[in-house]
Aminotransferase class I/II-fold pyridoxal phosphate-dependent enzyme (Sphingomonas donggukensis), 417 residues
Amino acid sequence: MTDAGLATEKPVVEPGGERDLMSKFDALIAERQALIDTGVTDPFAIVMDEVKSPTQAVIKGRETILLGTYNYMGMTFDADVIQAGKDALDQFGSGTNGSRMLNGTFRDHMEVEEALRDFYGVSGAIVFSTGYMANLGMISTLAGKGDYVILDADSHASIYDGCKQGVAEIVRFRHNSVEDLDKRLGRLPAEAGKLVVLEGVYSMLGDIAPLKEMVAVAKKHGAMVLSDEAHSMGFYGPNGRGVYEDMGLEADVDFVVGTFSKSVGTVGGFCVSNHPKFEAIRLACRPYIFTASLPPSVVATAAVSIRKLKTAHEKRARLWDNARTLHGGLKALGFKLGTESPDSAIIAVILDDQEQAVAMWQALLDGGLYVNMARPPATPAGTFLLRCSLCAEHTPEQIRTVLGMFEAAGRAVGVLA
Ligand code: PMP
C-alpha cells in the first residue's frame, strides 16, 4: 500500500468560531456520496451476513463465492483450530485484560511463540496484537536516532507507519528496483545503522520481490534486512515460511514479520529472528508493551493452525493449482493482469478507471462473486484493481464458475470485446 494519504483540505475558520477538524474530510465524503449516488453497492461497506466456509458467504441475502479474503489456507473452519479456541474460552475466559508485560501472558501466548519458533526454525518469536502492530513495533524499535530505514515505495501502510512512529531517517527506493536500492544505500554514511524493509509478496498486484538480489545488495552495504512475509506464509517455500525461504535466504534475512490474519486464519502479528539479543525487543517496543495481549482463544487457535500449516503440503499444492488455473483462465479470456505469471495467491485484474472497476465489481457481486476492489492511494501508479485472492479450499468447480462469472461480467460491462 502506498502512502499518498487522505485527500485533505484546509479547514474553514469562522472569525471567533471553532475550527471544525472534521471539515478536512469533506472531499472524501463527497467522493463517497458521488459513488453511492450512481446506484452501486458501496464496495467498502460489505457485510457478511453469514459465513459458511472459507470460500462461501451470504451477502445481501445471496450465496456468494469468496475470492477476496486472505484466507489462503482455509484454516478458519478447521475443526481442530475451532476446538482449540472453544477449549481456551472455557479454560481461560474471553480476554486477558492486560499487556504481555504484566498480567497478559497466558499459557497459549507461550505456546503460539513456541509454534512459531518451530515453524520458522528460529530461536526467537514475539507475538503482537496484529501484523500492523508488528511492523509498527519492529521498525520503530529497531531503527533509532541516526539510523536509516530503506523501504520499497510500494510498501504496506504498516511499514510506512512504523517509519513515522520511529525517529530514524527514511529512504525510499523504486518498487522492486535492485539498482535503485543499491544506489540509495551507496549514498548513506557507511558507519550508520541501516534496516532494509522488503515484502516477499506485494499485496496489491500479487508480484514478488527479487529478494535474492535485494538481500545481496543490502548485505554489501552492511544493512540488516526485515522481510514482511504476510502474503506468503503457509504456501511459499519448502516449509511454507515464505518467499525468503523459497529463495534460500534464511541465513541472510535478519527479521521476518508475519500475521495471523491471512494463512493462519485468525488475528495477530509476529516477528521471528535468530538474533541472539532478539528478546530485548520485548523490553523496548511500545506497540508490544502498551496494549492488551491477544485473547486466549485467539492465540490457542493460532498455535494449532501454525502447527497444522507446517505439514499442509496437500493444501499448498491445491492453492498453487488454483492460482495457476485462475491466472491462466483470466489471461485466456483477455483480462489485463497484475503479473505475467501466477507468482502468488493474489491475482489482480487491472481496469481502466474507477467507473469500469466499480461496474465490473458490481456485476460480479450481483452474479454471486466477491472480490476486493482497490484503488488509489492504496494501489500503485494510480491503478484500479479487482483483486482475487485464492484459497486452498476453492474447488476446481468453483474456479470454473468464477471464470464464467468474469467472462459474463466482462462482456456485460464492456471490458471484454
Ligand atoms: N503487512 C502486509 C504486507 C499486509 O498486507 C498486512 C495486512 N493486509 C499487514 C502487514 C497487517 O496485517 P494485519 O492484518 O495482521 O494487521
The CA atoms of residues 21 and 53 lie 42 Å apart.
